[in-house]
Design a protein that fits this description.
The complex is a heterodimer.
Chain A lengths: L7 E12 L2 E12 L3 E6 L5 H9 L5 E9 L2 E2 L5 H7 L1 E4 L6 E5 H12 L6 H14 L10 E2 L5 H15 L3 E5 L7 H14 L4 E5 L13 E6 L2 E6 L1 H10 L9
Parallel strand pairs in A: 3-10, 3-11, 6-9, 9-10
Antiparallel strand pairs in A: 1-2, 1-4, 4-5, 7-8, 11-12
Chain B lengths: L20 H4 L11 E2 L1 E5 L15 H9 L2 E7 L2 E11 L3 E10 L2 E10 L3 E10 L4 E8 L6 E10 L4 E8 L4 E10 L5 E10 L4 E10 L5 E10 L4 E10 L7 E10 L5 E10 L5 E9 L3 H8 L5 H15 L7 H20 L1
The chains are: A alpha/beta, B alpha/beta.
Chain lengths: ~250, ~350
């Protein structure tokens, strides 16, 4: 793969997470460096989305044991918006609808909040137009309300557009490929590949087909709240072909 | 029957359930106090005052009639112009009557300001056949003013009426807004947005009457309530016998921003025709945590996220309107209001 070991972006050690008293993640370890693309695959309910949400700081999840570090700093004390400002980004599986808030207004505010030296005025519009062109998005998106009446594919494109504009150091992509047609998958993959060299990427997916467009360095199989096997891209093919039953013993 | 011969309406009446007449009356309920006139200034249109000759049987309207006050009439044969009416209420009790006769296409915006102790405003209007009116009412009264507003609109055959209310002023407000769809093909799209702060009390009673077939109505009210404010929206939608092919919808939504804030949303339907579409819905809830989490994950602080959600929620009430000049004006005033609130 030719990825040099570089700056550590995310380090998760012996993580245990509960939701309303139910244990979901049970001793998970994961380290991601800048420039690395990691993929996590697993059955529904294995804890994949929980991992992404807890790293981003969703208040519904309780860390009962273990630690999470971002660029060497512990995350426990950081609120969600502080994590975003520190350079973390989560592409939601089900992005929230915000009625009455235009996409253009939202993007401008978000970029101004997150980036140290945010582009303003004409510079912002130029960057925005460039990113939208790259994702083959019509300018009419900007006057629509955030995710209001959006198709599944439109929501995912808007997530990737935000990622391009916010330029995160760590991108968590929670089933961003689910429900996309072939063209949308290609476009979304283009966005991921654009930020990947400068960031750490964690992609949560059920399907190998995304990996036809995005080449991961590591593929992890997650069973019952823990990573039970790690390999290269070939593991994704094997999981799609054989399912997860053969890993239950390891879990 | 004069005001002083009329009985105080009981609270069991739908209209007076949450803001009984004695609560909105400027002095003692049996009194008819001295009143000054509301000062009307019209931009983009000139017309002389007029003398009212109609008398309604409703206590609030009779009361406003007998207090006299000022009057302003607009007869519009327009081709799409925007007319601004600045109505300023001063003194202890200020009363005014605005009457519109619309025979073309126009947008009229009423900006109500002032610091009178009590303000009473009666708006009447007729949208003539095939005419189109966009009407905006922006209540930016002083925070210590009590407001009684009564509207009576008639929309004739094939005419369209878009009405937007932005209610952010006054501390005790009662609005009784009535529209009659009086001809086949007539329509109303109505949006009410209210922001409750402190102990503000804001009661909107909205009636829409479909008298003829193939008439359409669409009503949305969105209110965001903070502090110990109280917002009330009661609706009465009637579809007369034989008004087949009519389509009516009412949605009342409230956003509760504090534990002490209260909101009532009570739509009522009376449908006497057989072949119609009529729907209503109501919801009151705090801010959706998933919306907050989403915006905070994009770097907005808790306060910024809440502000953006509230702003969007209030603006969204105007999404059913098609008149761009109208929606642009009310959106701008709303944004200015919320930015001022955020800085307090």
């Amino acid at each position: 793969m030719g990825v040099a070991m570089s700056e550590e972006m995310l380090r998760v050690e012996n993580l245990h997470v509960s939701v309303e008293g139910t244990s979901i993640i049970k001793g998970l370890n994961l380290t991601i460096h800048r420039g690395e693309i990691h993929v996590i695959m697993g059955r529904n309910g294995a804890g994949k989305s929980t991992l992404a949400n807890v790293v981003m700081g969703h208040p519904a999840y309780e860390i009962t044991q273990g630690t999470i570090h971002f660029q060497g700093q512990p995350l426990e004390e950081l609120a969600v918006f502080e994590r975003a400002r520190a350079g973390m980004f989560l592409s939601f599986q089900y992005p929230a609808v915000i009625p009455g808030v235009q996409v253009g207004t939202f993007l401008k505010k978000s970029v101004a909040s997150v980036r140290d030296d945010p582009p303003k005025g004409r510079a912002f519009r130029k960057e925005l137009n460039g990113a939208m062109a790259e994702l083959e998005m019509d300018k009419s998106f900007l006057s629509r309300y955030v995710n209001d009446g959006f198709s599944g594919g439109e929501k995912k494109r808007l997530e990737i557009l935000q990622m391009l504009l916010l330029k995160p150091n760590l991108a968590l992509l929670d089933e961003t490929d689910s429900g996309l047609d072939i063209d949308a998958l290609r476009i979304v993959s283009k966005g991921i590949n654009k930020i990947a060299p400068e960031a750490g990427c964690l992609i949560i997916t059920h399907y190998q087909r995304l990996l036809d467009h995005v080449k991961p360095h590591f593929v992890h199989a997650m069973i019952d709240g823990a990573i039970v096997k790690t390999g290269g891209p070939e593991l994704a093919l094997e999981l799609e072909e054989r399912g997860y039953d053969w890993l239950d013993v390891a879990a | 029957m004069s005001y002083q011969q009329m009985a105080v309406p009981p609270r069991s009446a739908h209209l007076w359930r949450y803001t009984p007449w004695p609560r909105i009356h400027p002095t003692k309920v049996e009194e008819l106090p001295e009143a000054d006139g509301i000062s009307f200034t019209v931009e983009g249109h000139e017309e002389a005052p007029f003398t009212r000759d109609d008398i309604s049987a409703d206590i609030a309207r009779v009361f406003l009639q007998e207090l006299k006050g000022s009057s302003q009439r607009l007869t519009i044969n327009g081709t799409g112009e925007t007319i601004h009416v600045h109505a300023r209420a001063s003194g202890h009790v200020a009363v005014g009557h605005l009457d519109l006769t619309v025979k073309g296409d126009a947008t009229v915006l009423v900006h109500l300001t002032g610091e009178s102790g009590w303000c009473g405003l009666h708006i009447t209007g007729t949208v003539h056949p095939n005419a189109n009116l966009g009407f905006g009412f922006i209540n930016e009264l002083d925070a210590n003013t009590k407001l009684l507003r009564c509207d009576d609109w008639i929309v004739e055959r094939d005419a369209s009426f878009e009405s937007a209310t932005l209610s952010v002023g006054g501390f005790n407000c009662k609005s009784d807004l009535r529209t009659t769809l009086n001809g086949t093909g007539s329509s109303i799209r109505q949006a009410v947005t209210a922001h409750g702060q402190g102990a503000r009390h804001d009661d909107h009673h909205i009636e829409i009457h479909h008298l003829h077939g193939h008439t359409d109505s669409d009503l949305v009210t969105n209110a965001a309530c903070s502090g110990s404010s109280h917002f009330i929206a009661t609706g009465l939608l009637t579809i007369a016998e034989g008004a087949d092919g009519s389509d009516a919808g009412q949605v009342f939504r409230n956003l509760l921003l504090s534990e002490k804030a209260r909101a009532e949303a009570i739509p009522e339907l009376e449908v006497l025709a057989n072949d119609v579409s009529a729907a209503h819905g109501a919801a009151s809830a705090p801010i959706d945590p998933s919306q907050l989490h989403y915006l905070m994950s994009r770097g907005l602080s808790l306060e910024e996220s809440e502000s953006m959600i509230v702003n969007g929620f209030l603006i969204d009430a105007f999404s059913n309107l098609k008149n761009d000049a109208l929606t642009e004006q009310v959106r701008t005033r709303l944004t200015v209001h919320l930015e001022c609130e955020l800085k307090r």
